[in-house]
Design a protein that fits this description.
With 221 residues, the protein is mostly beta strands. The chain is built from 2 helices and 14 strands, in the order H-E-E-E-E-E-H-E-E-E-E-E-E-E-E-E. It starts with a helix and ends with a strand.
Length: 221
């Protein structure tokens, strides 16, 4: 087997040549020297993937309406404590984290002492346990019967929480016709190497490197 140095000597000629390295950590252009017709090795990687981001969301878990006139399906007056306890129970359900289910309460109180309570169930996913908080629209009370003035009014209770979004893939690096992959689903970008790449002396080659990636060109000049 012919030694590598001997083969390189045959390829380039007998005169001594100097090993060179060009490393790119951002995009640019590499120009092949006039005496270089081959890149010995091309080493590169893309950018790392992004970790799952911490995001926030909110939803209304209870609304209270005051209507003038009749229309409720139940006789009597609904109280603020029951409305508040219903909202807090949904905050606690969401606060458990994971993929919780909660119930939305729509409470309608009419001025003729009738009311209606309608509910609907919903599911969430990826909730960070312990992150849920509750807030009330101004005018929401903690006790007493629900009552309003001479015109229709409404109030709401909202729960906010944190959740993790999806991790992202890294961007690719490219050089001399080769692509170096970025990290997948938040992972670290792999490093790969290509050997004995023919180049044209004097030609400029575009090198694309995203943040965190790199491309290294090893050649003789």
């Amino acid at each position: 087997m012919t030694p590598i140095d001997a083969r390189r000597s045959g390829f380039y000629g007998k005169r001594a040549r100097t090993p060179m390295t060009a490393t790119f950590t951002s995009s640019g252009t590499w120009t092949a020297p006039a005496s270089t017709t081959m890149v010995d090795s091309l080493i590169g990687k893309g950018s790392n993937g992004g970790a799952a981001p911490l995001l926030s969301a909110s939803t209304t878990v209870a609304t209270v309406f005051w209507y003038i006139g009749s229309g409720g399906s139940n006789a009597g007056t609904y109280d603020w404590a029951s409305a508040t306890n219903s909202a807090i129970a949904q905050r606690n359900a969401i606060n458990a984290g994971g993929s919780p289910s909660y119930t939305f309460y729509n409470i309608s109180q009419h001025s003729n002492n009738t009311y209606t309570v309608a509910t609907a169930g919903y599911s969430l996913s990826g909730v960070v346990a312990g992150s849920a908080t509750i807030s009330y629209e101004p005018g929401w009370l903690s006790s007493g019967n629900i009552a309003g003035g001479g015109s229709a009014q409404s109030w709401s209770a909202t729960v906010s929480w944190n959740y993790y979004g999806s991790p992202t893939n890294g961007s690719n690096s490219t050089a001399l016709g080769y692509t170096f992959a970025g990290g997948i689903s938040g992972g670290v970008a792999p490093t790969s190497t290509h050997y004995n790449i023919t180049v044209i002396p004097g030609n400029g080659y575009s090198i694309v490197v995203p943040p965190g990636g790199s491309v290294t060109i090893n050649y003789y000049q």
